[in-house]
């Protein structure tokens, strides 16, 4: 029975990858075709109508891919009889789900469809690496992971990660557009992207929104560490880098609120803080030593 | 920017005051926090003595000169090093110096009334004016009240302010950080932490000599060790037959506290330590102890008992050392225990499952000087064979005996050992409280907007708003306010 669920999960993940690929192409077509040499009159006359249909398909595919991914993650959990957060393959598929989920939630509130191209390719890369490199058969948890705190701590960490990465993608878009603007005018396809100020605000809001959640994730980790390892803080590499990420984002928030950093400097700082998070995930999980590294990734 | 900077004459008091003010500025606190983040990095890349002493000795073996230099800068003990401590002690002082005065100031400010309405409202960002209808002031007053603004009314104008919880939250957040640091220092002064390796069947009485290693804070008194005893009754490990990974560890113990004759049965698991007041008893590690009997050439027993071996991989291939210092000449056995035996062409004996399904003890026997009197501390799991001579090599099944010229060794069977970690951490609840308050404070300070709204009534109505830290959202609020005043809906 467990096997069947595990196979089902794999099929769902593969299908979601296929659908994300379609979404990626639809976004690409939208971006490419919206370009029309229009009259001088800028943003509003950019021809949305030509690509509106494709754009809708792109977002619909994104939602469908997300649903398939959710189903795949759930099936994986059922197959193992626990939350699907026991090894790096499972973190990756859940992380991709959180990232895409964060995008879809933000999409309801902001005009973010232009980001879909980046989001779909990022999700595809994550899932691709997970399937090709990190895959492990579904199995029960080692004793240290058997705890309610697994659910609390890791879900908080994964959601924070998804939102941090989204903020990072937006900060990167900011820097790219900023460079483009300082060379002259935006090229046609970029004209429909939001203004620099909006991007700047948006990445800040995302960070300000999840920073407390991240703080919570770290504290929940400490509570768990106290019951599993006999100390709540031990400067294990994963803990150390979680702390560094926390400090980096705290610095980012302080720099904005108390020193008044905006724009380019803030975007770089945001990227830096995000990269400490990625470093934690990639480096510490794969090459690091410490209590967070469970055998076989 | 070639301004001459005037440096005032400073007396020693002035200098002190100047340094204090520098130290307690927000900027310094931030820089110190960043420095703490940067200072934490080397410890995550270089092996640390507290976490991985083996790797550290490897470092010393591979590049002794470099290692000695690194050691001089405490790079193998980053988190206990003077420079790391210096940063967080300074941060601690800076935080206190920064937050306490602000708290007092805020306490006063929060009870003061907002400043009177400025003369020129039209200079404000969110400004609007229209012809008066008459009841605007009353409507505004009611609206401010229901929206919990603090108001000052004067000469036909109202000045209203809201959002003090931003600063309050922020102060609580920083105070909470101080609480966390206090909790940590309290634990390191008054706490203790020790390890004891026990074979199944053995009994542990909580006194300093029962520990294999014991560390305690400067102000911890030995007689603060709470009096309890634990007898290890049974250890059960369950493994997954497909992945060989452990699924469950259960430790059954007989426990007595205070009156050491009143026993209760308790269970310790990985995520649920046994709690005795402020002391927690954790199940930290486990492994196998081969039971051996060593005899001399005349057949007298020279040593007998279980010897804990150290696991090397997921299938619990374990290594260890059996030392018989009282024999003449001294005898030592370098051993390797495999719970489920198999042969691999490259590595010799390996274990293919962590449970003891087909155990073997592989021994090489050495005679000579064990080096126990040399004063250099030695691992109990290893033997320095540089001054010894090998006299034999043998793989034993349970019950088998290996006979060599100077005597014999019998592999009687095996037992399991567990590592109990016993921790008294009196500051952890402060740290936890600090953590919780920090999050609440953070939420309050990140999600409140501080703003002022004014209204002045004359022939025309004038309203304006000002958002502190240019927080977004005031435009929408002002729109609502104006619509309400105009009575449009
Ligand atoms: C002070 C204590 C802890 C801190 C600061 C901490 C920090 C973190 C952080 C930042 C992450 C997410 C980032 C990432 O996935 O790369 C994470 C993930 C995780 N933590 Fe913790 N943690 C702590 C304690 C624990 C404990 C006690 C356990 C379990 C016994 C644990 C198990 C995990 C697991 C399974 C993940 C999933 C992702 C991964 O390993 O990459 N953590 N932790």
From TrEMBL, chain A:
Where in or outside the cell? Membrane
- Pfam families annotated for this entry? Cytochrom_C_asm (PF01578)
* Transmembrane spans: 12-33, 54-75, 87-107, 114-135, 147-177, 202-225, 240-259, 266-284
Q: What is its main location?
A: membrane
Look up keyword Transmembrane helix and say if it applies. yes
What is this entry's stated membrane topology? Answer: Multi-pass membrane protein
Which GO MF term does the entry hold, naming one?
A: heme binding
Q: Does the keyword Membrane apply?
A: yes
Q: Mind telling me which InterPro entries this protein's record contains?
A: Cyt_c_assembly (IPR002541), Cyt_c_biogenesis_CcsA (IPR017562), Cyt_c_biogenesis_CcsA/CcmC (IPR045062)
Record keywords, A-Z:
Cytochrome c-type biogenesis, Membrane, Transmembrane, Transmembrane helix
Residues forming the Cytochrome c assembly protein domain are 85-291
GO BP annotations of the record are: cytochrome complex assembly
Gene Ontology terms: cellular component: plasma membrane
User: Which named protein is this?
Assistant: Unannotated protein
Write down the species: freshwater metagenome
From TrEMBL, chain B:
GO BP field: cytochrome complex assembly
Q: Which UniProt keywords apply?
A: Cytochrome c-type biogenesis, Membrane, Transmembrane, Transmembrane helix
Chief localization class?
membrane
Domain named ResB-like: residues: 26-478
Q: What is the membrane topology listed in the Swiss-Prot or TrEMBL record?
A: Multi-pass membrane protein
Location in or out of the cell: Membrane
| GO cellular component term, pick one | membrane
Which residue spans traverse the membrane? 29-46, 83-101, 171-192, 430-447
Q: Does the keyword Membrane apply?
A: yes
Pfam families, per this entry?
Answer: ResB (PF05140)
Which named protein is this? Unannotated protein
Name the source organism.
freshwater metagenome
